Amino acid sequence: MLSYKAVVLAVAYLSWSACALPIRREVPQEHSHEPIITSVRASLNVNNPNGIEDPIFGLLGNAAAAAGAGKITNLDCLQQATADQAFTNAKAAGDVEGMTNALIFRAIERNTGKVGLASVLCTETAANPEIAALTQHQDPASTGAAATNKAITLELAKQIASIGGDPQDALKSGTFAPGDLNDSTGKGNTCDDANDPNGCIFTQNLLVEDATTDEISSAVAGVSAGSSAATAASSASATADDTAAATASCGSASESLPINRVQYHF
């Protein structure tokens, strides 16, 4: 297992050397939902056969995620793989809260290159159908994000209900208010504070809920604990154009801050 210092140095090195031009990415926001990250980390560390360094890597763009992906080679699926293993471990322990947080983690928005850019969806199937039914929130300024993110939240609520959790917790997976598409800094309306154990998106009241409590209750009507996953695929989907646009590549707009302004926290 790499030490904390080694991970930080590896991330910095890969970010610097991956292309001839400086690597850039969106202003960090991966610690916005810190309580979820903390829970998933604890569950993942019980049994981590793929050697994933930390859940945080699953929320980063591919260039940065590579340093902590362990045996996961499809970086578009690192977030799903992390959630899947954490869910498996929590399920084996009968830990409903751990399973719930693994599901929420799977639905959290992943960093992309700029305001309005959707992230690439994982095309692999998770081992747990509850995880397989989900995908990540998309940048709230991306095309169709309001409908997409609402569908993800309602599907998440169903999966949480199916394992005996509180379906209203699905609202915790929400993201920020849409940013300005012309914002060249890539910051949008995000926050990132690794020192806030309660999650800066919550403590700073930046979370935009995708659905009402009544809509959550309606969505889970008839779903009971112990029922099978409602679907094997997310209700939300990305267009081929979104997928192509979000694929990280050197020289593209896959990341949007100069390397000397990027901050990594673990």
TrEMBL record:
Keywords, ordered alphabetically: Signal
UniProt key word Signal: yes
UniProt KW Signal keyword: yes
Signal peptide span: 1-20
Designated name of the protein: Uncharacterized protein
